[in-house]
TrEMBL record:
Protein name, UniProt field: Phosphoribosylformylglycinamidine cyclo-ligase
Keywords, alphabetical: ATP-binding, Cytoplasm, Ligase, Nucleotide-binding, Purine biosynthesis
Keyword Cytoplasm appears in the UniProt entry: yes
Subcellular location: Cytoplasm
Amino acid sequence: MSENTGAGPSAASYKTAGVDIDAGDRAVDLMKEWVRKTRRPEVLGGLGGFAGLFDVSALKNYERPLLASATDGVGTKVDIARRMGVYDTIGHDLVAMVMDDIVVCGAEPLFMTDYICVGKVHPERVAAIVKGIAEGCVLAGCALVGGETAEHPGLLGEDDFDVAGAGTGVVEADRLLGADRIREGDTVIAMAASGLHSNGYSLVRHVLLDQAGLALESHVDDLGRTLGEELLEPTRIYSLDCLALMRTTEVHAFSHVTGGGLAANLARVVPDGLHAVVDRSSWTPGPVFDLVGRFGPVERLELERTLNMGVGMIAVVPQESTDVALTTLADRGLDAWVAGEITGRGDRTTGAELVGDYAG
């Protein structure tokens, strides 16, 4: 074979194809300190292994341990982070979406893994995302035991990214919460949301950015800050609050208010034959919900089945536990209130409904 001396194409490599292994390695180095902050005694090994290891020998103290698992992402809220160039808050949202689903059944969050998909690895950007996930894990009381960063050139733009995660928790079988514990006369306690959380952003972006043409950098007087700052407000993580509530008083069920809104999510834990009635007059939704409704315009029922309307988590407790529950949450700095009760279903066809008008 003769040697090719012409000016042909240069040798191909993974890097010329769009995947930079060196950048990925640097991203891992930058994120290590944040992952260490989430470490629990049960975690074995460090970052960089093929799998995360968690010592479950502690579960031998359980009579019948049940593992609870969940997986989720944060939806199109990542587009707001990308547009604003802010990457260290979206991880809070991811942990909340996963671990607050797990705690609903009464489970203690144990560990989590993440998946970050990018068009191009910018090490500092990836590290900022992981920093947010690690901070969220600390707030949820769980360990971040591993994850994956995937570079997808040609499928995603250089600044595009998405995040997803999976988590595991544990609950004693006889402490499992859910519909079978709920009784007529139970109190429905609402826990305040920090804002929009991580649902309904396709509607929010369509209304405020596309239709109304608002800029993320614009200051909105009703919000008291820029629109972008409001839309990036991290999802509140309720895991430790819910666990504290279980330690101090009897709890029958939790409901994490995510996609579908308050009524639909609460209905998921209401047993056949009973009905949850939530009184809108017990709270005033934050101004961002009114903003979306006015600029749409979006009808109230459509807002309520898309957004959380200011309630991020529901606890259903026996009536006699109401005062202790409210005190416990207040002591933890969480705004909570009696929002309704569990009644007989009668001729109602749904498991939960909102009645009345919002306060204010």
